[in-house]
């Protein structure tokens, strides 16, 4: 009997949650539509779009897609639409400004005249040695083109430099370039002052008024050429020099936002072919006398032994002093590259001056000649340069010996 009563008393099924949720949503929609109709009828009130049922279903539609960026395409020589770069720098672009000279003309090229700036990337024509600022055809007609470029460089440099620095300002700039103050440094090595170093110097000038330059290797034989080329090509001013350490100042009126456009070289071009440095016979001597001099020169005690990638600023005065005692001078170059000691010999020939005898057995042997007269033009720099103006300030400062070569 108890069992039958349990069976007869069945519990009513509860409504499903999905049905109840849909019912509440429907009632809300109806109430909101009724409320909106009443508001519109009595008060002429328009409900906001968020309350209307039409806008509630707008989230179901996907949002508009953003514009996709175009795919990156690396620079290619096949892209004919790219315009070549223009630079208004008033000098010829060379790979190295200190290790090449306009006075010495090559006798041939080792490769075709491929521009190291890349195909159709610069609006200057590559001649195999340089990219001239003036078209060679125009330059042959206008003989004053070089003089005009030199005057333009001088005017631009004077405009950028402005008033000269006082001794106090120079001291502050030199002290800010010490090794314990900054790590910013531009290295000048065996290739000398290269074209891409222009971009490095201007990048350093963006955040500092002066930059430290460390010079080592073959170019340090002629420090005067390095300093003059740096000032001529960058329009800056060297305010300190100690050995191979230089401090290059950008100028009072230098504006980093208006820096000149410097196109970069993408590869190192092959050096052209120049005439031989060592001839079969020395001028004024016979073949037998030349052989005897070469044998005697290799037996002469060496004046010095050059270290690899060292500082050679004292080499020229050393050879000049040695010529007072002996007519032959030998320099030991063991461990140096063959091209390096050949360049050193070429510089000694022009700076001392002297006659090259031989490069055998990694030695440089030079002869002073029959009518040797050392130049008295003060070409060789001393080991240290002072840039203080004695009439500029009445203040005195201790010597700044912090910037020394390693």
TrEMBL record:
Gene3D superfamilies: YhbY-like. PROSITE patterns: CRM (PS51295). The keyword Transit peptide applies. Transmembrane segments: none annotated. SMART domains: CRS1_YhbY. The keyword Transport does not apply. One of its GO terms (biological process) is Group II intron splicing. Residues 163-261, 283-379 form the CRM domain. One of its GO terms (molecular function) is RNA binding. It holds the Pfam family CRS1_YhbY. InterPro entries: CAF1P_plant, RNA-binding_CRM, YhbY-like_sf. It comes from the Eukaryota. Keywords: mRNA processing, mRNA splicing, Repeat, Ribonucleoprotein, RNA-binding, Transit peptide. Residues 150-161 have a biased composition (Basic and acidic residues). GO terms for cellular component: ribonucleoprotein complex. Residues 44-90, 141-163 are annotated as: Disordered. PANTHER family: CRS2-ASSOCIATED FACTOR 1, CHLOROPLASTIC (PTHR46247), CRS2-ASSOCIATED FACTOR 1, MITOCHONDRIAL (PTHR46247:SF2). This is CRM domain-containing protein. It comes from Linum tenue.
């Amino acid at each position: 009997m108890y069992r039958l009563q349990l069976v007869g008393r069945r519990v009513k099924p509860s409504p499903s949650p999905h049905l109840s949720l849909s019912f509440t949503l429907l009632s809300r929609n109806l109430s909101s539509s009724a409320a909106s109709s009443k508001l519109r009828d009595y008060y002429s009130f328009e409900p906001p779009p968020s309350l209307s049922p039409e806008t509630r279903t707008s989230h179901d539609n996907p949002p508009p897609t953003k514009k996709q960026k175009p795919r990156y395409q690396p620079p290619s020589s096949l892209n004919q639409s790219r315009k070549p770069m223009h630079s208004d720098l008033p000098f010829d672009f060379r790979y190295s400004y200190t290790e090449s000279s306009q006075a010495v003309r090559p006798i041939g090229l080792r490769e075709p005249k491929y521009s190291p700036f890349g195909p159709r990337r610069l609006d200057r024509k590559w001649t195999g040695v340089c990219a001239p600022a003036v078209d060679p055809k125009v330059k042959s007609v206008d003989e004053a083109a070089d003089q005009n470029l030199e005057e333009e460089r001088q005017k631009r440099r004077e405009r950028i430099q402005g008033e000269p620095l006082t001794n106090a300002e120079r001291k502050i700039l030199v002290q800010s370039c010490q090794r314990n103050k900054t790590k910013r440094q531009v290295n000048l090595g065996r290739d000398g002052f290269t074209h891409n170093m222009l971009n490095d110097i201007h990048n350093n000038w963006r955040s500092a008024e002066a930059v430290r330059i460390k010079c080592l290797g073959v170019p340090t034989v002629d420090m005067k050429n390095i300093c003059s080329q740096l000032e001529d090509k960058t329009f800056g001013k060297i305010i300190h020099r100690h050995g191979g350490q230089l401090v290059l100042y950008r100028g009072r009126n230098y504006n980093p936002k208006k820096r000149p456009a410097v196109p970069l070289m993408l590869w190192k071009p092959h050096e052209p072919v120049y005439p031989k440095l060592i001839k079969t016979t020395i001028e004024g001597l016979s073949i037998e006398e030349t052989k005897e001099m070469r044998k005697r020169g290799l037996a002469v005690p060496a004046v010095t032994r050059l270290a690899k990638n060292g500082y050679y600023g004292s080499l020229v005065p050393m050879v000049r002093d040695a010529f007072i005692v002996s007519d032959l001078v030998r320099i030991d170059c063991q461990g140096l590259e063959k091209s390096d000691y050949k360049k050193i010999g070429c510089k000694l020939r022009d700076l001392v001056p002297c006659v090259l005898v031989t490069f055998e057995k990694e030695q440089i042997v030079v002869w002073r000649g029959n009518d040797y007269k050392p130049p008295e033009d003060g070409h060789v720099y001393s080991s240290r340069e002072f840039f203080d103006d004695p009439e500029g300030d009445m203040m005195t400062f201790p010597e700044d010996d912090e910037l020394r070569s390693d």
